Amino acid sequence: MSESGFARLPEPPYHVVIFSSRRSAGDDAEYAATAQRMFDLAARQPGFLGIESARDGAGFGITVSYWRDEAAILAWRDQPDHAATRAHGRAHWYDHYEVRIARVERAYRSTPAA
Amino acid sequence: MSESGFARLPEPPYHVVIFSSRRSAGDDAEYAATAQRMFDLAARQPGFLGIESARDGAGFGITVSYWRDEAAILAWRDQPDHAATRAHGRAHWYDHYEVRIARVERAYRSTPAA
Prior knowledge:
The structure is a homodimer of 114-residue chains. Chain A is built from three helices and four strands; from the N terminus they run βαββααβ. Chain A is α+β, with helices and mostly antiparallel strands and 114 residues long. In chain A, a hairpin with a 4-residue loop joins β2 and β3. The longest helix of chain A is centred in the N-terminal third of the chain and has 16 residues, at 28-43. At the A-B interface, β1, β2, β3 and β4 of A face β1, β2, β3 and β4 of B. β4 of chain A pairs antiparallel with β4 (94-109) of chain B.
C-alpha cells in the first residue's frame, strides 16, 4: 500500500480480488498485526501489483488487491502462510465475507496520484 | 446497500466499478446526504445489482458498485444528476480518486449472507 493509500497500477488489463468483510468482535491488535504481515507477504508475491483497503468504524471493510493475472491470484491463494491465516480468519475474525474476482478492463483517476 | 453492508448479487458474470478515494476536509453532513441520495438513485437504475462501501477514519474509502453489464455502467455515468454530483465531488470532496472497471468472473462467500 502506498503512503497515500492508493495502489499505483500499470495500464489494464490486470486482475483484482475484491474482499468485503465484517469483523467480529475480537483481538484488534492481533488482527492488525496479521493484516500488515499479509500485506507485506502479498507484496513479495510474483505478479502482485498493489492493494487498497478501508474499514469503517462499524467493522465493515473492503480490500482490493491487484494482480497481473489469474495465475498470480491462485499462487497467492495457495501460499502456505496465507492459506493458514485465511483459515484462522474464517474461524476468528469475520462474521461474514464475500470474495469477487474480476478482470480490470479500464481505469482512470482524478489527477496524477499525490 | 443491504442492512448488513453486503450486496446480494447474482452468479457471475457481471461488472463492477471500484471507486477508491480520499476525502478532503469539507462538509461531512452535505457529503453524507448526497452519498445517500446517489445510493438511492443508483439503486433505481436499470442493471444495478448492488453496492458496498467503507471509509476509514482517515478519510480513505472504497466503494464497489455492481452492474449487469457495461451498458448499465455507461448509463449510470451519464445520468444527469449523477454526472452533476460527480463534477461537484471532483471540485469539493476528494483530494484524489481512482476508478477501475472490471468484469467479475467468479465469486464465493464465507457462509450464507446474514
